[in-house]
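Quick one from the shared queue. A colleague (R.T.) flagged Chloride channel protein as missing a structural entry in our internal table.

Convert sequence to structure tokens.
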Amino acid sequence: MANITKKVSWSSRPDETGATGETTPLLNGSEQPRHSRQMSGEGAIFHIGRHGAGDLEEEMTTEEEFLRGRPKEIPHNEKLLSLKFESLDYDNIENQLFLDEERRMSYMGFRCLEISRWVICALIGFLTGLIACFIDIVVEQVAKVKYNVIKENIETFTEAGGLSISLILWAVLNCSFVIVGAILVAFFEPIAAGSGIPQIKCYLNGVKIPRVVRLKTLVVKVCGVICSVVGGLAVGKEGPMIHSGGVVAAGVSQGRSTSLKRDFKIFEYFRRDTEKRDFVSAGAAAGVSAAFGAPVGGVLFSLEEGASFWNQMLTWRIFFASMISTFTLNFVLSVYHKKPGELSNPGLINFGRFESDSLAYTFYEIPLFIAMGAIGGLLGALFNFLNYWLTIFRIRYVHRPCLQVMEATLVAAVTAAVSFTMIYFSNDCQPLAPDNTEVYQLQLFCADGEYNSMATAFFNTPEKSVTSLFHDQPGTYNPLTLGLFTLTYFFLACWTYGLAVSAGVFIPSLLIGAAWGRLCGILLASIFSSSSTWADPGKYALIGAAAQLGGIVRMTLSLTVILVEATGNVTYGLPIMLVLMTSKIVGDYFQEGLYDIHIKLQSVPFLHWEAPATSHWLTAREVMSSPVTCLNKIEKVGTIVDILSNTSTNHNGFPVVVQVMEGDVPAKLCGLILRSQLIVLLKHKVFVELARSRLTQRKLLLKDFRDAYPRFPPIQSIHVSQDERECMMDLTEFMNPTPYTVPQETSLPRVFKLFRALGLRHLVVVDDENRVVGLVSRKDLARYHLGKHGLEELHLAQT
């Protein structure tokens, strides 16, 4: 392996002298335990690398409890790959139980299952739409009260003097809301921080992120995003809707709530990772649809950002969920606005209608749009670069919940102070429009019948500010106002993303881009004052918004359709697509997208679409983990308990072989069994001796495995007596007899393609006589990536 930049030795492979590989420093500064080789009477057990528990939603382990008492600084290295994350079991386990159930199921049974899938998708769309309505209505009502109180206070003290009291009031109101939101996230559910899009991307990629689809996470997310937006932070409520939709889908599709300890005895067939992940992709699409009124964009988002496995029927069901979501939001908001049946509110963010006549563009403007895309890419790369180092700083120093709440409070206070200062010193006065009643306009030091233009941008919810930048008449803003607003809001948004609050980055990105885009339009109009082409800067605000958002998040296909659907005008499809492509190409030259950066900083073993370009010379033999812990078809219970209880080797998949050989001699493969299956078998005491003496009450069914999903009990909670340890367990009926295998000479890209496309968790490597020589898991593939110095191998850490 001379051509590879070795960041750390792959410590699961002892060298010829028996010494273990080089150890990797952990995130908490301690050293990684050395990988030891342990022998048992029944065969050899080896440490491949500590895997997290097999349960998606496990309770906190003793190791995590120990990490609570963290030092003041946590050393962090982004060249790490965490071993605590597990893969989803997307592959069907075609064991004897599965085949028996399939044989028993009638044609009508299969039809009922298909109907159930459509019903679940409808429920997902309906509930996601209701949550979006709840967030929208609460934010609107609370923000109205807040802004009216501050507005009256400012108007009172503008006459009498003492505007500092208004500043203090504004800061206190903002801080009080943000403190509530930050406490909910930092102390009750940290996974609810941010937009949740990186976590949902990881889940759809096939990674189990602990607690990401819990009911508690949803409650904290919804309450947190309301507090963040009302608290005046530079955030949006659209991003968290995608996470909320995913949580709703994960809950509804299982027909029970493990958090509330309620089982409704419905949808039991779907209690497995294969079905659950499909529904979560529908939930994410419904979230996009509710946020932007973009059902097609929602489907494309799930396709582009998430699911590795896709088929035609899944696409159709996801589109159905998205349509139900946007229709529910539309209908409920029409009733709320006392216009029942008038379906004119397709999403949480309504950009307003862009009329083709007033916003027509010409052929020679396209190069200008592309140039704006390049500017968006550069600004996006700068935003991501600053946020990257800020996140590193937070990981190292701002890791205690109390510090996280204090930082969020500080940002809220600074945001209020900066907003007030910008409005106070701005002398950009504009005449009041007769029909403009939605925005909270401040007169301040302007003459009667005029309002402060800077206040329209700052003294408002971000969604309303975006709409006003798109649609306000030419001359509404002067260039200095837009320039200062862009500069200050850029740094505020960058500082805000990554706080311990539930918040999205979509709307702040659109707002920054709309501001500098409108500024470009005004400057062009002043340069070419004779032409009517440059008359309306609104179209440049739209292009700038697309460029900025594309430069930060680097989405292309789905974002084009989302923006086209949100603006209600397909005329701008081509310019928006060109702008997003340009901003992505320019931005990728300097820095990765924001979501990819945060996934990497969490050390998640994320698998991209393709294997690294220069990895064809690597083979499965060099990538795999070996030797492997194997089990016999009929295995001693004591051996199984010892293997599962071994905390140094927390494996999740075990090849089943004809006979475990002594020493390192590989044995012939005849199946694969999972840790979760073995735990259920031990729990129900499925032993050969008990079956012979007819002490077992009934034969084990797939229902028993589904009832235990997803929180399989830990092995420590299962009592096995000394006599039972001597019993034997027949794994033939429960193992997957046809696991996917590859020859040991298979190249890394071929292994990667098979693993990624089929959503595998384990891939067995065999020799030419079908004997097990190794096992490929997600970490084995994710640790190779293309860096500046060629193919690099990432560190492996336990945290």
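Residues 363-601 form a domain with the Clc chloride channel fold (CATH 1.10.3080.10).
The two ends are 27 Å apart (CA to CA).
Added to the table.
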